[in-house]
Amino acid sequence: MHVVTQQVIAPPARAGMFLVITVDEGAEDAAAALLTEISGLTRSVAFRVPDDGLNCVIGIGAHLWDRLYGEDTRPLHLHPFQEIRGAKHTAPATEGDLLVHLRCREMGPCFELARIIARRLVGIGQVVDEVHGFKFFDERDLLGFVDGTENPEGDAAVAAVTVGEEDPAYAGGSYVIVQKYLHDMTSWDALSVEEQERVIGRSKLDDIEMADDVKPANAHITLNVIEDDEGNQLQILRDNMPFGEVGDGTSGTYFIGYAADPGVTERMLRNMFIGDPPGTYDRILDFSVAHTGALFFTPSIDFLDDPHPVARDATPAPDPAPSDGSLRIGSLHRRTRERGTR
Ligand code: HEM
After folding, report:
1. pLDDT at 2
2. Domain ranges (residues) in the chain
3. CA-closest residue to ligand 1 atom 4
């Protein structure tokens, strides 16, 4: 059967909005009804701006899923985001029942659709975190580095983000983890460009990856290139966006990572916050503090329009993520790293 997926894979947007929403107790039926309206509401705005590529992806958190459709129907890897506490830095887990991820060439259509959704939310829930992201020069984050270069493309992107035969009832869905990071620009700007490049693992001006023999063990890139037991690289799809306010000096990166198995993103996060080996944590965290953290399942459009939750049999579901660090990655998500520098 052909499944219509949400448009998780999209070219880097020029404008974006990230809304994290909580749903009130007792408003479950209304929330479920709102979810069935989302694709229609998106068309109402998108049709009027056909050249702007307005894209709305909706994610549902584990607790809300249980309230709407029953715990026994949970997608295989859906669970609440778990705090990750390293010796120095912590990735907090914060509240969130729904994620609305809006992307567009202009901010106007994002704002219009967000406003329509917010209006429908009255009596159902609240927007508890809202970030308006913008495109910075050359696809750079506010640390000044090009962000997104090594994202998978084409078939590799589809394989990286799409739930497949491992969970047939929810095939075509995806998982997404979001975190709002604020940068300490004073400390960052005090570093020389060479030191900053050693934090990221790539050159700043021309975005070239450092050779393996010079790239530090605690560079962001080193800790985020991970492989399965057979040496295949495990990938996620990121669409981070800068945000900030000059008046209060806030500079941030809104991290958003889609994956067919959130265990891949969680392993990257453990590498970043705890370190690999433990203690060798990601140096980017000395300049970037995570203020939020949440995990959502993004079902197919077919599911959103006409939910058909499927109860699992009596076999216990394998989530939350296994403590042995194994990843349960299907063959669909495998790709061998084929770059020359490593
Ligand atoms: C403060 C937040 C973050 C910033 C500013 C940031 C920035 C960057 C930059 C500049 C790159 C290099 C260019 C590229 O390939 O995109 C990169 C790569 C990458 N980042 Fe991040 N990142 C952040 C958080 C995260 C988090 C939380 C994860 C995972 C959970 C992550 C996963 C990755 C991955 C997988 C790569 C590509 C590695 C490769 O294949 O070479 N990033 N990031």
Report:
1. 83
2. 15-307
3. 253
